Amino acid sequence: xxxxxxxxxxxxxxxxxxxxxxxxxxxxxxxRRAARIVETExxxxxxxxxxxARAGPTxxxxxxxxxxxxxxxxxxxxxxxxxxxxxxxxxxPSAVLLRAAEPVERCLHSTRGPGNLCRxxxxxxxxxxxxxxxGDDLFVEDAPPPPERILAAPRVNVHYAGEWAERPWRFAxxxxxxxSKPAPIPPKRRGx
Length: 192
Fold this sequence. Notes:
Layout: H1 5-8, H2 12-18, E1 23-28, E2 31-44, E3 71-76, E4 80-86, E5 94-105, H3 114-121, H4 125-128, E6 138-141, E7 150-153, E8 170-173
Antiparallel strand pairs: 1-2, 1-6, 2-5, 2-8, 3-4, 4-5, 7-8
């Protein structure tokens, strides 16, 4: 069953955590490709210095200001596509980057890292940016909550964002071999 739009119409950080364990599906030219989401990052609001929305509704980031439940797919370093899901209320720019997933069905490539994940599922900016996740070509299927512990850590490669780079808005399933590097470190237990 596909996740309903109401799932995405919530706080970005909540959606980022709750996407873990769900299954991203892309109907790629009639071929179903799927992977279980194991790592996400939240980008929350216009003040978030790590977010593409920090400069306002530019042509690239305008979709983040739109309604929830749509794909925001962009090109990074001119070579890799990255997929986000737009979250929160319309007008408040927020999205969740899908960083890594566990291969489930007909993946073309490694699914570790956001560019690899898009490559593995055949997701591309020119075809999938702005796609409604309530449609039939690109969507997220519901799944039970994951049995793994969820780790929170600072986001990756956003050092330019100052204090925003330290926000623990990267979420990953503990122990998953599919989480991208550097893997989040579990917190130390007291008394050890």
